[in-house]
Amino acid sequence: MPLFGVEATFWALLSPFVAAALSPILAKTLKHNASWILAVIPALAFLQFLSFVPGIAEGQTFKASLEWVPTFNVNFSIYLDGLSVLFALLISGIGTLIVLYAGGYLKNHENFGQFLSFLFLFMGAMLGVVVADNIITLFVYWELTSITSFLLIGFDHLRRSSRRSAIQALVVTGGGGLALMAGLLLAGFAGGSFEMSELINSGDVLRESPYYTAIFILVLLGAFTKSAQFPFHFWLPNAMEAPTPVSAYLHSATMVKAGVYLLMRMHPVLGDTELWMTVLPIFGGLTLLVGTILGLRQTDLKLVLAYSTVASLGLLVMLTGTSDPIAIQGAVAYLFAHSLFKGSLFMVVGTVDHEAGTRDLNRVGGLFFAMPITAIAAVLSALSMAGILPLIGFVAKEVLYDGTWHIVNGGLWTAVAVLGNAMMFAMAATVAWKPFFGTKVKTPKQAHEGSILLIAGAVTLAVLGLLAGIFVASVGHQLLSPMTSAVLGIPFDEEMHLIPTYLSPALYLSMTTFALGILVFMYMDKLRALIADALRVIGWGPDKGFDQTLDLIIRFGTTLTQAIQTGSMVTYMRATFSVIALMLFIPMILTGNWPVLEGLGSLYAYEWFITAIVVIGVYAVLTARYRVTAIVLLGIQGFAVALIYLLFGAPDLSFTQFMVETLSVVILALVMTRLNLKPTDARSLRGKVFDISLSVLCGAGISMLLMSVVQLPFDATLSEFFTQYSRSVAHGRNIVNVILVDFRGFDTIGEISVVMVTGLAVLALIRVRPKSNGTSNTEKNR
């Protein structure tokens, strides 16, 4: 059973947000030592998730739910299986180490508390993504990861490059999030449930749905943008503008793997189709090659690791797209291995930068004796990244080769995997060999070993990578097989071995990878120059395209604003009434539902009298010489409408209309007396014809709309509701009063507020006296 029960998981999800609130306070008083106290919070969450492992290894799943928005069937529900628990362990476990690392890396930073607050918010968002059962809840957390990553990437906001990278990450991942929202809603409606646990157990419901293609494309957009798949890969390396603790956390266990998590989560209901097994391997394989090729040309150690992360994410997507059980097992093992070695390597690079003053490959070398513990962590992690025995990375590589070798078109995907892994082998050697064992170079700072806060995380993850490889059978049974089962949607427990039991194709492929990797590493400088020349010839890339797209959007917005916001009231009125006319007539034209035009029939004398008042009033307005006169005459129409309300049994509505019309006329007239308006019309003949036509269209449209409404069968549901409940619920005999005071209480308050504000405006206008300039207002503004 879980350590504190399933319900305690809600507190584990809430705890990072509590830590976010405490961080500024503790950091202000304890400085960097606050990391030791705050790290306890994610550590406790780690223990809570760890307590689920024995049950999940036996095939159990755990659910809990709290009502959130019951009206819309949105619950704060959680679902814990092999997939969500392993992700939660990585997020909380590595998060604990990152909090400690941040205390050493940002020691004495003036905004250290703010940084920790952002980091904990990000941690809480990621935990919510992986354990959320309700897809609406999942989406809320998903978007929160984009917002918090924006804050972290742009933490050093005084630098323009940081601000640009943060905006780029937010725009790309936020745009994908909008597509994902539509995809999740479609999936919920098509699958008949908004609970992920029910959705992934719905069999072929989504695959057989006519909306499958739309759901697939929308979900892929969300996943590809979040996990930096080509052509959206450019934002992730640019995110290296963030402090190294962010880079280590973002790349190893959190945001960039959210897209992979989503694809794995949706695999039982969207996977194993021709579309899935075509699109995902193509884009994943392309991302793998693009990431490794671009990474080889880098000399900044963080960028080398960043592009290797892009490549690794491509490999994970490619393997997930095969839908082969062994390949999926390889993806799960590689995801676990990648989290360990990539988190460690980023912290190693950050420590080198912090203690040596640079992370440029051309300016570091021979640091082993100055930083021996950091060097050992780097070597162990790089060996795992390269896929060398006995690290967990070796086992993952063997399994994924075995998976790709036996599938349809497996030769192609195996070749892509081998080529990509060979280049990552060379990148791993670059990060671990040159800084510590290369030719000694004088660094900007006198290099020395980092503090315990800086080295603890890197060493811990590196050693865990070694232990996970040695005890891979146990790790596979407890963690990796349950996750594979969750991804496949069926039980799976294929035993994993550190030492190959026979000479399989996977072993030969591993040997080929090593040979190619050594060859690439030997000619790294020449390859770097060759790739740089090729990119210089190509010139344009997605990163530049992002800037061009943003510039195009800004230019379009500026042009549109200048065209619409002309400062002319005439233009605004024409645009407004043109839209009204279109809204009135387009539905009737498209549907063909025109009202039946009936004759006037026999009208009473007083009805003819009111009609005559309206006609005379309209004529008087149109022929008025002065605007103030026209405004006063315009009130005739409102008073005529008020008379109609009165004659047809609505005295309260009639009184309201009299008040509103009177106030409108008074205010407009007072405003006009403050302006120097000449009795001229600057409109051209064409403009007058257009305005007349537009007014006739709007009037005719409103008339036909009203006729359509009154020709519909009368629905007495609302009347019956008020009649039935006015006495029993609101305890009032006068139904109109009950509606105004109880059923429409807030609306009535709003109306009273409007009348009050209007009255104050009238009072203010009356009390304002214009300065005398020798010309009376009467003569000037008649």
Structural class: mainly alpha
Radius of gyration: 35 Å
Measured as a percent range, the helix fraction is over 70%
Query: How many strand elements?
Result: 2
Q: In what order do the strands lie side by side in the largest sheet?
A: 1-2
Mean pLDDT: 88
Low-confidence runs: 774-782
The number of helical segments is 33
Brief rundown of the structure:
The chain is mainly α and 782 residues long.
What would the keywords be for this entry?
Na(+)/H(+) antiporter subunit A; 73% helix; mainly alpha; elongated; disordered C terminus; 2 strands; 782 residues
Provide structural commentary.
The structure is a single chain. The chain is an all-alpha fold and 782 residues long. Among the domains are: 1-169 and 236-256, no CATH class; 335-522, no CATH class. It is built from 33 helices and two strands. It has helices spanning 8-30, 34-38, 40-50, 53-57, 82-105, 112-131, 135-153, 160-191, 196-199, 212-226, 235-238, 244-252, 258-270, 276-296, 301-322, 325-356, 372-386, 392-405, 410-437, 452-470, 472-488, 505-522, 524-538, 542-564, 569-591, 605-623, 627-647, 651-673, 685-710, 717-728, 735-743, 745-767, 777-781; strands spanning 62-69, 74-80. The chain has a two-stranded antiparallel ribbon with strand order 1-2. Strand 1 (62-69) and strand 2 (74-80) form a beta hairpin. Helix 16 (325-356) packs antiparallel against helix 20 and helix 25 packs across helix 29. The longest helix has 32 residues, at 160-191. Mean pLDDT is 88; it is low at 774-782.
